[in-house]
Amino acid sequence: MKRNNIKEIILVIAIVIIQTIIFTIAGINKSYIHMDEAYSLGLASYDKIEIQDNEDFYNTWHNSDYYEDYLAVDEDEKFEFKQVYENQKNDVHPPLYYLILRIAMGFSMGSYSKWPGIIVNIVIYTCITIFMYLIIKKLLDERNRYKERSAILALVSSITLAAVTNAIYIRMYALSTLNIVITTYLHLKLLDKKEKNNILLIAIAISALAGSLTHYYYLFYLAFTFIMFVIKYIKEKEYKRLAKYVITMVLAGIMSLIIFPYSIQHMFFGYRGQGTIENLTNISKFVGSIARYLLITNVYGFNNLLFILIIAIIGIIIYKKVKNKEIFSVKNRYIKYIALPTLFYFILVAISSPFIELRYIMPICGMMFILVIYYIASILNNMVKEKTPNIIIVSIFLLMAIMPTISNKIIELSTGKEFRVEKEYLYSSKDEFAKKLKSEFKLPVEMFSSFSDASMANTLLYIKNFRIEPEVLYSNKHEIVETIKNDLNVPTLYLFNSNNNRFLDDILLFTNIDESYIAKDVQCNEKNIREILQYKDISNGIVVFINDGQENEELINTIAKCINCYEVKYLQRLNACDIYYIK
Description:
Blueprint: H1 3-29, H2 35-45, E1 61-62, H3 64-71, H4 82-90, H5 96-105, H6 115-139, H7 146-157, H8 161-168, H9 173-192, H10 198-212, H11 218-235, H12 239-259, H13 263-269, H14 271-280, H15 286-301, H16 306-322, H17 335-352, H18 362-380, H19 388-415, H20 417-421, H21 430-440, H22 445-449, H23 456-465, H24 478-487, E2 492-496, H25 507-510, E3 516-520, H26 526-533, E4 542-547, H27 552-563, E5 568-573, E6 577-582
Helix pairs in contact: 1-6, 1-7, 2-5, 5-6, 6-7, 6-9, 8-18, 9-10, 9-11, 9-18, 10-12, 11-12, 11-17, 13-14, 15-17, 16-18, 17-18, 18-19, 21-23, 26-27
């Protein structure tokens, strides 16, 4: 093996080790799970889509094992995989990721663990970074120290807040990211390959098949890439290559439908597919959705640096125009095959996604990062000394590394230090706590409320707990998990409003509670509360969960009166409910 190849392999291994250490640290610090992560674990291992579908779920006392069963594989389920396919048939996503997760969960039998999902994603991200390195190397081919620059770019693209979130988020988005980068790299190779490309076409077909069986949004990216290559072959009159390429894609599509024919139902007739089609035809949403996704991309894809970089790019372009300098000194034939599908994916996902959420654009955040940095380096090339672009790029990376800390300090200063550190449990009333927060908040909170349907109190609590960090790290949930598990493992009552069913957002806490009761749409009066709590030892008090859409203070006062306990503590706001302790 050539010495240069050995150095390159060592370089790639080094960046993979660095990112793996970062992902592992983030995984250790991950304190909670989002309801979609609970869905991932349940859909991969349970015999129903939701634990709430059990006939005995509501209005009955359960222990912690009852809920943990949804999040774990039991010994007697070790070789059962049928539910993976059946659950996805009845849900809204294809099954490939859930099959991989189910296999990984088999190594952690009998109890919930976040690690099978995180480890799967860390392994996937090793492959993502390798392919990102290969893509960047093609973009920078033969430039000064292009391998080292490619390695640095690949590493930094994999440790942005979006990438770390992707790695520790137990969902299919890391796998979808891998599908996209493999598809991109193989198509860049196809541009170079003029003859005997059958093996490459087979690889493209396998990549397309895997992508379509992972997430339907992948098809946005694939579709635009496909259109670009069809146009290319027609313009160049390469009809034989066109025919082989089209046949390859058609066969991949047929194979995907043979394996999972329910895709048609999901995409065109299911509630999520219908919602996507409706959103795509709602022109009034376009600008607002795209703008909000750009804000999310700025925070998580560029660690709050995107708009500064865009202003810098525009400024340099204007300067070069004034000086009559060529904007790009070197034309790159690969770049449009990355930039245009990425832009198309971003716009379509921004318009069609059911919620404005980071997770839907995570698969292209790495590509967007690479494109912005590439364009900055390219427009600087014929303008400054050869080494200056490298210095500027390194400076950008260092700034990105410290931007989350700087941003959090600015947030702290804007909202007031006391606002940030105030503890919910010092108050008996959520409204009282929210009123205190509003008096300290230095910015117009109504501006934040206008972006969502959340109440003023919930908006204030969200702002208080918001930090620029990996989105599903949930560092602010660590204390409540430990408190419920170790200090307040007392009978727990969940007053559940079925019109706001997000129970899976709370299921992790219930796996740590010995006795809990989900009271579905139960009228909170003295008779019902006493009936529910009869025979229960409430000498150390009770914990009460109340999900959205209810009058918290009225319910808490009624329960306190019923059990003759009047010391009330408001413990914390979760994603979609509030927790109280009454003693």
